[in-house]
User: Fold these one by one.
Assistant:
Number 1:
Amino acid sequence: MTQTADSYSAEDIQVLEGLEAVRKRPGMYIGSTGPTGLHHLVYEVVDNAVDEAMAGHCTQIEVEILEDGACEVRDNGRGIPVGTHHQYENLSAAEVVLTVLHAGGKFGGDGYKVSGGLHGVGVSVVNALSSKVEVEIQRDGKLHFMSFKDGGEPDQKLVVTGETSEDTTGTTVRFWPDIKIFKEGIDFRANTLLERFQMMAFLNKGLEITFIDNRNTGKNKKTSYKYDGGIKDFVQHVNTSKEALFETVGFFQDQDDEQEVEIAFQWNTGFNSDGIHSFANGISTTEGGMHEQGFRTALTRIVNKYARDNGQLNKSDDGLQGEDIREGLTAIISVRLREPQFEGQTKSKLGNVSIKSLVEKATGEHLRDWLEENPKEAKLITQKAVQAARARIAARTARDATRRKSALDGAGLPGKLTDCSSKDPEESELYIVEGNSAGGSAKDARDPRTMAILPIRGKILNVERSRIDKMLNNTEVQALISAIGAGFGEEFDLEKIRYHKIVLLADADVDGSHIRTLLLTFLYRQMKELVLNGHVYIAQPPLFSTEVKKSKIYLKDEHARELFLKENPKHKADFGRLKGLGEMNADELWDTTMDPEKRTLLKVTVEQASIADEVFSKLMGEDVESRKTFIQTNAKDVRFLDI
């Protein structure tokens, strides 16, 4: 070995002071420096105001996007404390909150019993990743002001700039995201913010959240959310595009010294058994956790007992399973606790054992009473569960027949699957390709070591409108389940997936979009963990091609073509519109869509499962008017659509 001149001594150990660490590794604090991280800045500021609301001191939050792209968040809470901080003699408490990581009223003391925010780094991270921040505080009859620049450098120390009435309190934070950090752009997307604010308003009964977008000159400049029914209104909202089994929305709440729970529920006529959406301190727990476990256990026990006591189940009948009872159920579980423990790969699973006991006890007592007090609704619930059980038994018969057939066939993989040679799931990719002709091109184009091809003929079954027994009789659905190799529904096991990338490859047209939506609906409803853990991708085949100096250039869509023309104003050459995957030869398909060195893949993510539930119900359910409204509302943002 040859020695190098590189040194490694005490002088080489660097300590990043204050907010410098955030600017050095922003992804550690906000997830990414793309659109997700950009919007996370807004949530950090708004979460502080929501904490005030949960503590009973805030009723109004206003979020305003200014004309220059800055974001301003105003609340009528108590105002950040302005007195000198006991650990920093030369700084006020407000300056500490803005400049010191992990500083705030949620780390012990009596500031907050419960609080939101996942990482606890809060507004100081917003300061670190902004080119400019201004803060106004109304408190103790005075108006205070301070400002920062260039990632948290003090610009104006806290000063009193005026007087207010003693009962006027609140905080205003204005920040300008730093383009040097968010290189993909600093434009906030209104729909992304509105979805989050609406959810926050549902979870905090009576809190009014107003969004004002000064970039929008039309009538929709201002939107307000306020729900006096809280999570009962949330359930009705999720069920809007579904047919409710009955009009009543059930609700109960309970608490002990350290934690509290609210649950709202209503059944619909659909067949989805994954309609439970849970939250802890306002944070969406998409992977569930102890609070969901407690609810599911008590729900199964109580409905079974009610069905037997009232003659819907005979003593000789097998009991109803949890999935039978949950078919068509939409439920919101919202818990608040002093020290939430988040687990799982995405920190979205609640691990506190104590909350399981509270939720199970509360559900056992209150749901039993609700069923007794609402016999008409209770009968409809148990009848639907019994029908679901019959369908489950029929599906098991179909599943067993499929397994027997697979065993006779040998490996049990679908005949039309062209598998890859690698047996390592981490490097293996499954391309689900629209049409046999496109499948042929993809087979010729692929890297046979790591890329498997499964052609899908036409549009697969819409599982949003089908029970599991009908679904299992569909050839294309059978092929998908067999190829992925991890089961489906309640039996799905993420550890058994044969590929860590499931890539949907369809034409860049309306039919292709429909097929992608059908496939996404199936994967989200029957293999949800596959989506939640980031294993599902959408390929981006180009829509246009043109020639530049005898070289062929491919452009993804109309937006890419317009951008190309702006950058090449003297180009008048023709743009050929690519008609479909089946008409591309193998070389074209590899160069434009499948080559890992050149391709663009969109990862399908679900930040808020309740929103995804609502979107899939609107797009694939029976309510035509809801689907039409959704498409009209989102048409202008279609190239940013991120389910």
Number 2:
Amino acid sequence: MKISPLAGKLATSAMLINVPQLITAYYSELPDFAIPEQRVAFGTSGHRGTAFERSFNEWHVLAISQAICDYRASQGITGPLFLGIDTHALSVPASVSMLEVLAANGVDVMLAQDGAFTPTPAISLAILTYNRQRQSGLADGVVITPSHNPPDAGGVKYNPPNGGAADGKVTAWIEARANDLLRNRLNGLKRIPLEQALRASTTHRYDYLTAYVEALDQVIDLDAIRGENIRMAVDPLGGAGVQYWGRIAERYKLDLTVLNSEVDPTFRFMTADWDGKIRMDPSSPYVMQSLLGQLERDPSYDIAFACDTDHDRHGIVTQSVGLLNSNHYLAVAIDYLFQHRPLWAKEVGIGKTVVSSQIIDRVAARLGRRVVEVPAGFKWFADGLHDGALGFCGEESAGATFLRLDGTVWTTDKDGITAALLSAEITARTGTDPGEIYGKLAAEFGSPASDRREAAATPAQKKKLSSISAQQVQGNELAGQPIQRILTRAPGNDAAIGGVKIIAESGWFAARPSGTEDIYKIYAESFRGEEHLHRILDEAQVIVDAALGA
């Protein structure tokens, strides 16, 4: 990847979006159904786009909202729908559009008190809390967020009654119905004016913040953090959890400083990501420059962390190594949790994605815990978390969640807040920060080097890669070692990974098409150092290009 000269630098005025223009485009620009890029398309985590490119406009949200109502009716889902929004500029107008449709369809909607922003994990927790011990009248939810994507982006993701991100069958149903509505110019849409929707008997207010914060000590040992006087700093990156951190500190009497409480839809306070774009990705060292700088200027903090815009991802900053690689932190969290949660059942396993580090497998083997390896996307973990079969689930893009202290479900979607606070618990109970613990794990299991590459691919090539077979892979070696396994289906659940993963003794790579761009991505890891890693990446590109006929 070519690094922009703007990477890691504070956003310039030229980089900032014009918010009035963006919202005007949301209402005034209509998608052209004849253009595939302007249709509804659910990726691994909902539909995303931008009003400027006619990929996230009012018609998209209206169609998706009606499709969700129709899906609920088809499945007999009659409980409330918990609705949350993040701090992107398009989230508020999208929530208005959605409420007008939900109310017209008679859906009980749970809006946040005072129009507050709501993190993804708070929605998941609310769904699970409502549905506990219920057999009928189940609740579901929607989070209006494009996750960590740039300020001009908008997004909608649906969470069914299991509280996690919807699986492929559900999103395919909603996508198809929404596109039918778009094709027919919203014929069949039910909608009432906002004023009427707000007054409807089906529109309710719910205190997501209090419900989440009051239950937090059931999943994190906050007494240990307070008892050891762990000094923490957090940067919410202008996201939906901005009001949560202060309440957490106050409620549990923690030494937790919120470094930036500003909410601004232009995100002018952010440093640019690797490509010069504003992006709220807490796993990126370029995005995290402000927090890294503050920790460097004030070394009295024991640990620091940040979350993305909907607070389902985490970034951990330690005094020992700075920003901790997301895969490295997953290994540390697993190593710690399965030794410090005595009430978790012995058979509880670990969930990882096919592109997460193999050091997780090595840590799990020492712990005597099974690993369930699934395709990319947190939706694959929801059922295992819900029934307590999986104790910790994480993905390489800095998303994770885990069970409560007593071994019961906490959230079935990613939770950046608890993942961040876990780093403070680890520091408190071990006297060692997560960066130092990872150093010990690397000494024990080997220190993997990892990287990711992107390459251009046509839609036809992306489709071909997503359905690739092992027989299409040429050669029997990877970077000088015999190929041990060629995977096109995940070993944990036999689901198609939408690409290919090739494994040798000391390294592996996985290639899969992007869901939003005309590129494919290659993830690679080596336990023999950077030179071996680059050899894997070079050979991976040759293997994939040959399979695609490029």
Number 3:
Amino acid sequence: MRAPVLDRLSARLSRGFAAPVLIALIVLIAALPGVFSLPVLDRDEARYAQATAQMLATDDFVSINFLDEERNKKPVGIHWMQAAAVTALTGEEARQIWAYRVPSVIGALLAALGTFWIGRNLLGARGGLFAGSLMAATVLLGAEAGIAKTDAMLAGLTTLALFALLRLRRGADDPTFKRRAWAVAFWGFVGLGTLVKGPVTPLAAGMAAVVLVVWEAWAASRVEGAKFWPSLKSQAGWLRPLAFWPGPLLAILIVVPWLVSVQIATDGAFLREALGDDLGPKMVTGDEGHGGPPGYHLLLIPLAFLPAVLFLPSGIAAAVRALRAKTDLAFAARVLIAFSLPVWLLFELLPTKLPHYVLPAYPALAVLCAWGIMEWAQTKALWRWIGAVLLVLGAFVWTAAFVYLAIEHDGPAPFAILAGAGLMGLAVFAALASARGAVRAALLAAIALGLVWHVAGRGVIAPMTNLSPGPEAARLADQENLRPDREPVWSTYTEPSLVFTFGGEVTLLDIGPLRETLDASQPGLVVIDHSRAGEEDAAFLAELEQTACASAGLEGYNYSRGRPVRLTLHRIGPCTETTP
């Protein structure tokens, strides 16, 4: 399409409800393939889903448990959201993981729409459209939208809290602006974010407010020749509505009743373990092997922020130009830096690192990308080519990953090669178009690239590999009628996905304890992970196979432990036919 046509199209889409509808559609195209096709994932998703299922089964919506173990790590918010979705859509007994993922899809929608609103407020209607569309297609957001855990919803609530903060700042000089209403909304989003994942939302919002106030006070003192501290007091005035009592009270009412209840229910163990055993180690060491040096998240940005990374260097350059020239857009630059850089640096400095930790910073980065698109003509060729190289590099790594995954793990290799070719073709086209100044065509190609990644990678390639031995074991048990009356399950394959798909009636143990406790006269199903068996277990396993009423087996790959596995399933007990 020619540039004037694309300009008219973007102008039309940026008006009215067309922009949020288009952004929501991109989110759904990116998220839904993995939501329905991927089996339950190890380990966090399966633990979250199983804990929610146990809440529904026991009607205990205060304590968080995985099997018989208290799970005092994260607050209860996402479990309540999952429980509501499952109750409305499938019911606990169905064990349909897609229903548990619905809150994450909603969280991704909120993050993309919040990005649109921030972009529209700072850069106008087109800026909002570009920012929201890029955020919606981003690899990391779409991937988290298809996983039943906290991070997509956390990103959505944090983005809305930051948007409310922006509205308070922009309305500070408008006597008709409803400051108190937005202040209450801010506290509501902070409370919900806290109930979902503890301190992340208040930290992100608090650091953004502090950085913005201090920066603006410093800038004002330089321009006006005033002292810094009086200027700081003056610049912080827009935060006063946050002291309006219904706002903090709303946040307290969202968080504190459950927190008091869970402290009582666990004899004070929740906060002690959540802070001391979960959060504390993350602050001082690479907890659970998830360590990395400063710069870890920056190195991953070509992969996680694909396809928006194409426009990020130009967006950064546009913000720097505005700050140097002290134009009206200098305010937008300060806001976007305050909304992204502090939380990014925090997670870069923490010893424990996982790719999704910096997701709350992505909305501001997406708005920067939109800014880069809008000022593409003023961008030096160097920044254009840096973005192009990052895009092609990210696409190449993901192409290699798709092909390797399919070949190494029994996936659809021809389709993976075709999908990889599509990724590379779109990446090269977008890179060349952007370098030649056809930025609208590059934007369309980049969004298409993101959607191809989600549909092909999460919707087709990953689900067709042998990376889900737990769910496959449950399917095999149903197919071979090895558990006709939902008898108990004893398993030496200890990944949480098996627990969830077997309905939670599972005892996880090693072969030694299994040998000592197993009663062959009791009906049940025994799952043996042969990768954890030694030579001393050979006689016991041979006897188990000989005395079992029926047996079946499968091979797969345990990606959590990084090793192939062979599972055998043995139905034990009285060998009588039972009607399914």
